[in-house]
Request: fold
Amino acid sequence: IKRLSEYSKIRPPYPPGPKPKPFIGNLLDFPATSKEYVEWGKQYKSTILYAEVLGTRIVIVNSQQDAEELFESPTRARMYSDRPVIPIVPLMDCDYNISIMRYGEEWRQHRKICQNHFNAHAARNYESIQMAKVRQLLQGLLDTPKEFDIHNKMFSVSLTMSMMYGYEVESVQDPCVTMADLALTIGARLSVPGGSMLNVIPALRHIPAWLPGAPSYEGIKQVRALTHEVKRIPMEFVKKSFENGTVTPSLVTDFYERKYTVGATKEEEEMVKNVAFTVYGAASDTTISSTGTFFYAMAANPDVQKKAQAEIDLVIGTKRLPTLADRGSLPYIEAVYREVMRFNPPVPLSVPHCLSEDDYYKGYFIPKGDYFRYAPAAMTHDEEVYPEPFSFKPERFFDEQGNLNTNDRILAYSFGRRACVGKHVASSTMWLLIASILACYNIGKAKDGDGNDIEINAEFDEDGFLSHKRKFECSFVVRSLASQQLIEETN
Ligand code: HEM
Reply:
């Protein structure tokens, strides 16, 4: 097709999608939620779709098969691994972030550090921190069960800060947490194509801020100042812990141990810091989202919960908490984990990739420079693959003989060379959390003042990047005195 179109100068069409309006394109009809992509797919009878927003061309893939072909086939993987240039990113001092780096040598070197520290084998090094944080979570749920949302957040951010810096977060009000959250929220809002005029017309940055019509720099300055602090505070902490002899193992402290003994270059130091800063943003909210989905799924599906608890009681008993060594012996818990990640992929519409060369696929033209996104939420709700996709059914991951089936690919971690490099850490964290909470707690509906069940809404909210369970109430009741003692003894 490529040769033919070059020869005839007639190119194949873009994939189907809604007709763009002048200048704004599809800004007004661009889906606000991932469910709408499934509808678009049905409406335009295609698993590959096309839209334009303020001059940015966006291709969206709704099917796993297409995503595997485009992101992973040896002939295409490289072409689909770049990230779009977002002009506002360097102005906010956010170009340290690996997940938005252009595909190239700088990204490759950072990715290598990530792979060395988060591959399947290395991920096991984090088990003692994961266990300690899960136990703190269990204790928090015992002390103030109604505050399960806060415990969820505390678990995720304290785990990440501990793994990266050995930094002990005291509360979700820790300045490092509040500032990072604010920087990520404002930064994400400004980084989308329509988030700032600087993304649409980069040359506007040459207009002095005092001139009428100049773009606003308020948000940019705020993100820059917050990013500076979020980088400074944990590094100060690491420095002090070396001075005071109170260092605990973590990615950054291990690096400095090495630097002070065998030496390391300044470039390596910068890269390790960049990895640690990136992981806070990449790991925290995604884990919070997955845990929120798990809490909801258990409260709304008591039968699933009972089945999972029966398996834990049979295999582990009630005298100890689960460990990662139990993972292979608890297939139903494994299926609950897979179903949590399927039911609500935390990033329902992927981080944008960018095409580095023109491509021709399924008779469509996909030009170089296009934003390329895939919709994991559309894939994990494909009725052909997952019948009754909006029901929470871990049973879908078993074969007819009652063994776990081979569908163990977690689509929420994405495809190809930019796929989540922390997926082994994320997987063990989520598994341990699920097994430990089910071992100790019954999650159920909360009661109102008259003792009636409070119904749980089934809604999830999407902010353009992440999907989170909408706020709901539920109860955490410790399963037995033995469970309570286990929690208290281990804290
Ligand atoms: C449930 C938890 C998690 C989910 C669902 C998740 C999902 C994702 C997704 C969808 C991407 C973008 C992939 C793409 O662009 O195609 C990503 C990138 C990334 N993730 Fe995760 N993630 C999780 C946890 C983690 C953890 C625990 C770490 C680190 C320990 C991590 C580190 C990263 C990094 C560094 C990137 C950027 C990779 C690159 O651009 O080369 N993530 N993740």
Notes: The mean pLDDT is 91. The first strand starts at residue 48 and ends at 53. Residues 87 and 125 are 38 Å apart (CA to CA).
